[in-house]
Amino acid sequence: MYRERVIQMIKISKQNWIVATVALGLCAVPMAAHHSFAAEYDSKKPVTLSGTVTKVEWTNPHARFYIDVKDASGAMANWELELGSPNGLMRLGWTRNSLKPGDSVSIEGYVAKDGSKLANARSVTLGDGRKIFAGSSEENAK
């Protein structure tokens, strides 16, 4: 009886170890997907863009929106702009309807290090002239 009890305890301990390991592994997946500002954006390369909103994604960990911008040659380019988290944006006064496709906006932010049409928005100036902080993760953003 004592031997059977020890064997049962070992099985339970092994099961608990497996469950704990899997749970910790699953918790690490979202953390690995998140990035620091410095890993993706260049704070020494500010950018100002003006264009028309084409799409808004109100998702975690960062809300995003896309704008069509004309370059110097007149060609249209679609830029992706990263904002803060939806929760952080709501604390700053944003709503899901703050930006809508078709809105004219101007943004100040920082370009991606990889040279793609991606930027971290620091502030967004709406068509009515209101300037809103975009919840940038850049340390000196104000």
Number of domains: 2
**How are the strands of the biggest sheet laid out side by side?**
1-2-3-5-4
Strand content: 35-45%
What is the terminal separation in angstroms? 69 Å
Q: What would you call the shape?
A: elongated
CATH architecture of the largest domain: Beta Barrel
Low-confidence stretches: none
Tally the helices: what do you get? 3
Order of helices and strands: HHEEEHEEE
- Tell me the major beta sheet: 5 strands, mixed, barrel
Could you give the count of β-strands? 6
Folded structure, characterized:
The protein has helices spanning about 1-35, 35-40, 85-90, and strands at about 40-55, 65-70, 75-80, 105-110, 120-125, 130-135. The protein is α+β, with helices and mostly antiparallel strands. The mean pLDDT is about 85.
Q: Could you name the key traits of this structure?
A:
142 residues; alpha+beta; OB fold (Dihydrolipoamide Acetyltransferase, E2P); 5-stranded mixed beta barrel; elongated
Outline the secondary-structure elements:
Layout: H1 2-33, H2 37-40, E1 41-57, E2 64-70, E3 76-82, H3 86-91, E4 104-112, E5 118-125, E6 131-133
Parallel strand pairs: 3-5
Antiparallel strand pairs: 1-2, 1-4, 2-3, 4-5, 5-6
